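Pasting as-is:
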Amino acid sequence: MSKPPPPQSLDALLARAEDFALFSMRSGGKVPPTLLADTPGGPLFFVPSTLRDERAKDNFANTARLICVAHAATAAVMILEAWMKLASPDGTLDLSVPPSESLHRKEVVMLTGESRSGCKQKILPIIRTGAGGFFGFGEFEGPDATSFQGRFAQILPPKPPSPEMQSKARAVLAAMGVAAEALRRDWSGN
């Protein structure tokens, strides 16, 4: 039996997440919501079956948290395609309109990473061709994020989980049909 790889840095996991986002955009024109996590047993990869409504989004975030507890994740990155609302040319930001309906919006892929040493975020603006196909990622021109809030934040537990907590989380995941073997598949081998 081979020894599992050493834990990666958050920067290395974010780079892997960016590679996955680029692979997904080039092969399918979109990025599925995804969790990449680094654990003492090696990397994990989870894509929910759907995110069709608010409940499914909550379920994905909670399942990601359970996976991180069950496998004692040391770092995690959530990968999400989203609309980002920008300030209008006069500098105002209308918070009454959802980003998807704003005239001042940008299509992006969000990479939100967490480790016990801190959080990092990378915003990848999506550049599309005139026909709507994926052309590439642009450079984000804005300030770095310093804090994260919302359903897809605080995915890692605040401290390493006990063996009992890991066991309970694994039992809940098994009841949900999330098998540990399926989390270990490698998307880059496709």
